[in-house]
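Listing 4. Sequential folding, example run.
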Amino acid sequence: MKAAVLHEAGGIPRYEDFPDPVAGDGEVIIDAKAVAVENVDKAIAAGTHYASEKYIGQFPAIPAFDGIGALPDGTLVGFGNIRLPYGALAEKAVVPQGSYMPIPDGIDPAVATVMASAITAMSMKTAAGFVPGETVLVQGATGVAGRLAVKVARLLGAGRIIATGRDDDQLRGVQAIGADTVINTAVSDGALAQAYLDARGGRLRRRGGLPVG
């Protein structure tokens, strides 16, 4: 098959031949249809992301860990949890059975790859039962998805937004786009626990796995 193949951390993926994946017990082959290359994919390929070793621990490797593709029966799905060194930037990927969800009929694969903003809003409003005026805690807010969650929470009417991360400069940027309080998690357990207590502004309760207050 053809794939974008990375030969070293920080290198540029090459469009070249790569052995087809073979499904083992409990696995399925996905025919990739569309993949959104995100900042996290670029950071992993560059070797600068904390999870780089997990996803490109051996070379050659194919970048990107999720996408939109088709099952052997033609069903269009969103997939992830790809078996390394295979990644999504290839004609085929291999994933465990169940590591995919069907895409509704009529949605173009390219469109489906960029629906993260809608999913973020749905998770807060529907899964978490968010009510305008409540407090929203965004863990890992310094990444693209985290910053998006901060903006969505503000648009939905959050009364207070607490954002966490591990870089003070990045956290200042998150505060600039709408977070009321930021917490640097790169501290001792005791200091972190105290930071959460100081930031909570009242008792926090949990809905649908998301803390709100």
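-- end of first protein; second protein begins --
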Amino acid sequence: MTSTSAPILVTGGTGTLGRAVVPQLTARGFDVRVLSRSGAPGTVRGDLEAGEGVEAALEGVGAVLHLATNLRDDTELTRNLVRLAERSGRPRLIYQSIVGIDRIPLGYYGGKRASERLVAESRLRWAILRATQFHDLVASLFAVQRFSPVVFAPSFSFQPIDAGDVARRLVEVVETDAAGLVPDIGGPEVRTARDLARAYLAARGSRRPTVPFRLPGTRFAAFASGANLVPGEPYGRITFEQYLAAVADGASDAPHGRDGAAS
């Protein structure tokens, strides 16, 4: 179990997931350090890509919650973090990943798989949590079509989850001795993309039609097979409609299109 007396370093703490995790950790009595490249107020300066400032940020921490990512490949960020953590007291490392990365041949997912291997093969105590796509990622698929007379939706399903629900599970992992690849988590509902598109449009008072589409190739087939879903009892509580209502009320971030853990 992670001690509340030793600080926790959160990478990506200013991103969508990080902004949900940090207050939950603080409310549970943890001393939290947020790593950021800018060194903005309330954070500690450190650049995972360059490896600068990270070793100092790691000093004395009991655990690292690794949420930092970029839109291309997380591998170098994770490699640098693992290398520096192994030299800095070997704190427990908890990595946020994505459901289905070992079954869906996307380039970005390849970087996630490589990062998981770096964590698992390290000399650190570690845990990895995979979650389904966030609500904001799904919403962004439709938001980018705002000038289209119709909204296109892929012919497969999502099980979107709220960042707050993922944050809650990460705090549970931090507070326990959970190790290795912990059980995947998904949102409260499995919904077709077209159904989610209709919900998105309804929340914005739009009557534009939705059009399903299919693409050839193994990537689309993997999603269509349900490789991005979590069977069994869902973990998430907040539905897609509840997320959209919160965005409309200004209580959540506007969709920005990032997946899993944002940096």
